[in-house]
C-alpha cells in the first residue's frame, strides 16, 4: 500500500532521524493515523517539559548545593562518590533549602 509507505531512508543506522524530524504532521496523520500522531505529539511535549525542567533544576539547584555543602567526613582519603554527594541537598542546611522549596513550587505550577 503506497499511501502508508514510509519515506525512503539510507542504510546508515542513524538515517531514520532526518525523515522523522522533517515529516510534517499532516503527512503523519495520513500515513499512521490520528492516534499515533497525537501520541507522537504527546511524547514531544513530555520531552520538552523534561528538558526545560532539567535545565532549570541543574542550573539552579546544583550550584546552590555545591556552594552550601558542609563536609562532615572524618576520613582523609579521597572518596570517589564525593562529587555526587556535593550536588545533592544531603549536607546542605539552613536558608539554602529555600531554593529547593522555590524550585519545587515552580516545577508544580
UniProtKB/TrEMBL annotation:
Q: Which UniProt keywords apply?
A: Membrane, Transmembrane, Transmembrane helix
Stretches assigned to the CSC1/OSCA1-like N-terminal transmembrane domain: 2-108
List all membrane-crossing ranges.
Answer: 49-67
- Listed Pfam families: RSN1_TM (PF13967)
The protein's GO terms of the molecular function aspect are:
calcium-activated cation channel activity
Question: InterPro entries from the xrefs?
Answer: Csc1-like (IPR045122), CSC1/OSCA1-like_N (IPR032880)
Q: Name one GO cellular component term.
A: plasma membrane
Query: Which domain of life does the protein's organism represent?
Result: Eukaryota
Protein name from the UniProt record: CSC1/OSCA1-like N-terminal transmembrane domain-containing protein
